[in-house]
Every structure is written in C-alpha cells, then in structure tokens.
Amino acid sequence: MRLLNSSRLMKLLGLIAGVAVLDIVILSPGLLGVEIGGGSPLETASGVTLLVISFLVLLYGSYALLFKPPVLAPVKNMKSHEDYIAALNHYRNAKGLKKDIALALDQLDRIEKKKTTLSDVLGQRFDQAELSYKKFHSVIDAVEQLFYLNIRGILNKLSVFDASEFSTFTSEKKLTQFSNKLVQEKTALNNEYLASVTGYLGANEEILLKLDKLLLEISQLDSTDYQNIEDMPCMKEMDALIKQTKFYKQ
Length: 250
Fold this sequence. Notes:
Elements: H1 6-27, H2 41-66, H3 81-90, H4 98-125, H5 131-160, H6 163-169, H7 172-175, H8 180-219, H9 233-249
Helix pairs in contact: 1-2, 3-4, 4-5, 4-8, 5-8, 5-9, 8-9
C-alpha cells in the first residue's frame, strides 16, 4: 500500500511539530500564563480546550494525509511521472482490476529505470552534442510519449467505468430481474472495457521490450557494422511504432 509518500510524510510531520510548538508556547508557565489545574477555572478550561482542539486537529490531519484519497487532477492535466502513479493508485483496489493496475504501476517503475540506464549507456558511448546521441534520444523520447499516452488511455477508461457496478449487476439476485439480452449487452460492454485496458498494457509491455532490445543493440555497436543508426533493427521497429501511432491518431 502506497498510503504515504514523501510529500505527505513531510506535511504530517510539519502538522505534528506545529501543534506541539503551539501547545508548548501557550501552556508553558511564564509565557502566556495559561495553566491547567494550577490557575483559575477559566485558565484550566482554556488549557483543556486547547488540548482537545489539538487532538482533533491531529486526528483529522492524520486521516487526511494517511487515508483520504487525494483529489485527482484531470487526466489531460497530468504531466509528471508522479501524477500518473498517484492516479493509478487511486484505482489500485478496483474490483476485477487489481492485477491490471499493479501491472501498470510496475510498468511505470520499469520505464523510469530503463530510461536511466539508456541515458547512462548513451552518455558513455556518445557526446551529447553528437548527432547519434540526439537521434537515439529523440526516438526514446517519442516512444516514452507513446507509453504515457497508453497510461492516459487506461486512466480515461477507469474514470468512466466502474467494475464494481458490473459485479453488483451480475449478482445472482440481480440477474433474475433483467432480460438475457440486457445481461449479454452489459457483459459485452464490460468485456470491451477490460479488453481495452489489457490492450494498453500489452502495448506498453511491447514498448518496454523494444527499449530492452535497443539497449542490447547499443551495447553491441562496437561489434556490429551499422552505417546509419536508422539501420539498427530496433530503431526501425520503434520508428514504425511511432509512425503507426501517429497514423491512428489522425
């Protein structure tokens, strides 16, 4: 469970520290004069009220930071790697889709690692000002964009489809209330949604495989004679994938 990322942890620690400092300042003898049990009834009541409010603030703040789902940004506004992770985590317990969401999160983790490895290998073999370096990077960046487009596709499907609703619909008690035709159409629609999510995952798995193959081909450049980078088999495959995707987007 990714209930607490580094940002939320820092906010929670800051909340605890802020409440503690406030209580110490107000309740410390000689500062503001508020004392529990040793002064006037008003001071005691004020001190107790402060502690109760502090407890409630910490309780609600802990809930909001630890368990309350974050407000999701619209898919079209997502830009960073972390945005996509947060969005997928929102659906990680969706009934019937847990394995798919887990795989999508794993793919996000793997593409970041592959990008880092490819960048390191390219930096060792080429100067960043070289045309070869730029060609490799442009193709890798384009394929990465396709990867995130597929993640967006998954998130768009998840935002309009509720798998738990279908499970409720197909319960034994519910099925007796509807005609066979309606049940068949509902089932076909559900299967279509699931198939589309599986399709996006498969496309991203193919991208990850091509990046692995590219890494292998780059590591073999010393022993393989390619006059042009474009002649490398994996570069051809990725270029075809990019052009094909552009064709279907039109």
